[in-house]
Amino acid sequence: MALEPVEDRGPRANPPLSCAVDEGAEVRAAQLAALQAKIRTCRACAEAGYPIGSTPIISGTAGARLMLIGQAPGKVEERVHRPFAGSAGRRLFTWLAQAGWEEEQFRARHYMTAVTKCFPGKGSNGRGDRVPSAVEQALCRPFLERELALVDPAVIVPVGRLALGLFYDRSTPLEAIIGTAKREGGRWIVPLPHPSGASPWYNRPENRERLHQALAILRRLRQELGL
Fold this sequence. Notes:
This protein has about 230 residues and is an alpha/beta fold. The protein has one domain: Uracil-DNA glycosylase-like domain (Uracil-DNA Glycosylase, subunit E), CATH 3.40.470.10. Helices cover about 40% and strands about 10% of the residues. It has nine helices and five strands, in the order H-H-E-H-H-H-E-H-E-H-H-E-E-H. The protein is globular, with a radius of gyration of 17 Å.
């Protein structure tokens, strides 16, 4: 059954992300490698006074046809320098397995990045990670726009509120978008909730069904697009 896009009602939280550049694959690969090197040496947020707990963490190549965008790396990611390597990552890959991807297969074939690239440190109450500020998000935004342009994925999977805010109005409840897909700029956008164990959202039966629908969409796209 063909996928039906859903309309995004309401104003955007951010202007649209950049369109893909029209360049050869080899040129794009070289440009992405140079961009990643620049990202990994970025210290803009630390220099602005934010308590950054790691260097930037990203993974993937210019040949990826799916881009997964998270919120920010966590403490485990800081230690192993690998996206979604902690408990939230294990839950995420449990979900993705339902769409047909094994973890190492997914990591090898697809691009994993985040709204902000560094571990932001623990929250002020000592429980959970600090949510990156609007300034930090803005400092990282040009990197994400360029990653998107150079990778030019067929499918984007935003995970969690900050990433969802790139493509949906921030006031839209998760219940209205999880389990849906939409076309934007020639790409499929398939949102997922954050897989944090601290979130009770997907423990509710009705929300588990929404998550199941989202994973069914991803499974169908994986089959139809050969992802």
